[in-house]
Amino acid sequence: MVNRLFREEVYTLDKEFEQRLADLKEKYCELPSEKKAEIERHIKKKNFLNYKKIELIKKDLLRLEAKRAQLELCDRNKERNQVEEKIRLKKEKLLKCITKQIE
Prior knowledge:
Helix content is about 90%, strand content about 0%. It is built from 4 helices and no strands. The longest helix is centred in the N-terminal third of the chain and has 26 residues, at about 1-25. It is elongated. The N and C termini lie far apart (about 55 Å). The relative contact order is 0.14.
């Protein structure tokens, strides 16, 4: 019984996290993957420093996602919530950088 309640709580946390990420994508207009690749090539060619900045943010996101998964397996929700907030902020920063390059 307790285990089932805990799983439902985790599911609602995941649902909230996914909703916040969906709101971010909606705010910064989701781009198709072909368009993203084209923009990335353009940024790499025209502004290499911004390209490296974007790559660094992606690397940090990957590290944070791995940490989030590890915390989820260990059932450490408080720390996982902090990591999820960091992920949301990094994704927002990434989307801002990309949309700034589009304009």
